[in-house]
């Protein structure tokens, strides 16, 4: 075995102690110290250096059927992570390699080498593989090229536009030929960032209320494409602003993830029918075939500064639950990451 670790390595991991009702609290999580097992044939041991917290994880904390299995009570959570291989029994992934994988929420991960992807840190820093060069960036790309394709001259509206997906999507819309890109975010600092850092043409502060009126002011002639990560009032406002033949990519509905009762649907759905609007859901896992195409574009755009990204960093595995809750409240600009 190719190894740089002792057989008695200890590691910490975050487990789901109980299922949250409404917004998660510290009592729903448990920090546990464990011993790292020896890797089997074809496996690697990764010392995680960065992990991601993402909105979809909230749904996995509930014991309910969905497109991805729920987290198990008493077991470590999982999610995107990158780290350094410190032991390997797989020729394809040597010790010292940086890899991305799906066993976050722990300081060390033992996994099949086939479940890890070697990350080229000469191309971009390791955290980028959890953001623009990971499924975050791919979500924006698939949404605006397949699910609700942007056409030359379109007016595009992006919700949660200062977040990980939205901040990439706004810039991507411009690259795809949009004539005007509008984003919504919470608070004056974020809306200023949309304009100054991410290049949006107009920014809506949803905390100020009057979302339909703000959207009408930003897009007086209506919108053609809407990337929906919020649901609720945002989806309703977008339907109201849609032009004939408009497209909506439904990638999330964070406004209802902590709800304890069913959230009301848009009251104006018939407007979507009358204007022949397409509302289409998407899961990024159905578009993994686009990864090579996206990486080729995104890496070049990152290198030459065409694509601007930001990240909000929280240090320490023990603070991962707090980082998750803060992200759900909108505390992050760009990708929320935990540095381990």
Q: Indicate the CATH architecture of the largest domain.
A: Alpha-Beta Complex
Helix percentage:
25-40%
| Number of domain units | 2
CATH topology of the largest domain: Quinone Oxidoreductase, Chain A, domain 1
Radius of gyration: 21 Å
SSE string, helix = H, strand = E?
Answer: EEEEHEEEEHEHEHEHEHEHEHEHE
What is the arithmetic mean of pLDDT? 95
**Proportion in β-strands:** 25-35%
Describe the structure.
With 340 residues, this protein is an alpha/beta fold. The chain has two domains: 2-131 and 310-339, Medium-chain alcohol dehydrogenases, catalytic domain (Quinone Oxidoreductase, Chain A, domain 1); 135-285, NAD(P)-binding Rossmann-like Domain (Rossmann fold, 3-Layer(aba) Sandwich), CATH 3.40.50. The chain is 25% helix and 26% strand. The chain is built from nine helices and 16 strands. The protein has helices spanning 56-60, 135-147, 164-175, 188-196, 211-218, 232-241, 269-274, 291-304, 320-328, and strands spanning 2-3, 10-16, 29-35, 43-52, 81-88, 98-101, 108-112, 117-118, 155-158, 180-185, 202-205, 223-228, 242-250, 278-281, 311-315, 335-339. Strands 1, 4, 5, 6, 7, 8, 15 and 16 form an eight-stranded mixed beta sheet that branches. The chain has a six-stranded parallel beta sheet with strand order 11-10-9-12-13-14, with helices on both faces. Strands 2-3 form a two-stranded antiparallel sheet. The protein is globular and about 60 Å long. Mean pLDDT is 95; it is low at 4-8.
């Amino acid at each position: 075995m190719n190894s740089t670790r002792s057989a008695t390595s200890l590691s910490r991991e975050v487990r789901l102690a109980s299922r949250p009702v409404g917004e998660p609290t510290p009592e729903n999580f448990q920090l546990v110290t464990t011993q790292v097992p020896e890797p089997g044939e074809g496996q690697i041991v990764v010392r995680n250096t960065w992990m991601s917290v993402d909105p979809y994880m909230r749904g996995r904390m509930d014991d309910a059927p969905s497109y991805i299995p729920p987290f198990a009570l008493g077991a470590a959570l999982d999610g995107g992570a990158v780290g350094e291989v410190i032991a390997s029994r797989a020729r394809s992934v040597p010790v010292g390699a940086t890899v991305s994988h799906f066993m976050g929420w722990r300081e060390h991960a033992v996994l099949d080498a086939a479940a890890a992807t070697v990350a080229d840190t000469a191309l971009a820093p390791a955290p980028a593989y959890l953001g623009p060069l990971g499924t975050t960036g791919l979500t924006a790309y698939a949404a605006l090229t397949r699910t609700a394709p942007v056409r030359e001259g379109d007016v595009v509206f992006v919700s949660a536009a200062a977040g990980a997906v939205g901040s990439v999507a706004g810039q991507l819309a411009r690259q795809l030929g949009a004539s005007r890109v509008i984003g919504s975010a919470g608070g004056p600092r974020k809306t200023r960032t949309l304009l100054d850092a991410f290049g949006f043409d107009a920014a809506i502060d949803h905390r100020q209320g009057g979302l339909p009126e703000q959207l009408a002011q930003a897009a007086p002639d209506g919108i053609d494409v809407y990337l929906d990560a919020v649901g609720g009032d945002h989806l309703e406002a977008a339907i109201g602003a849609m032009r004939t033949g408009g497209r909506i990519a439904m990638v999330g509905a964070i406004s209802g993830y902590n709800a304890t009762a069913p959230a009301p649907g848009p009251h104006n759905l018939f407007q979507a029918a009358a204007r022949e609007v397409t509302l289409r859901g998407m899961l990024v896992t159905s578009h993994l075939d686009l990864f090579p195409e996206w990486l080729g574009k995104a890496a070049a755009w990152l290198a030459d500064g065409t694509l601007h990204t930001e990240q909000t960093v929280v240090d320490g595995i023990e603070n991962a639950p707090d980082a998750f809750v803060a992200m759900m409240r909108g505390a992050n600009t760009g990708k929320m990451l935990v540095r381990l």
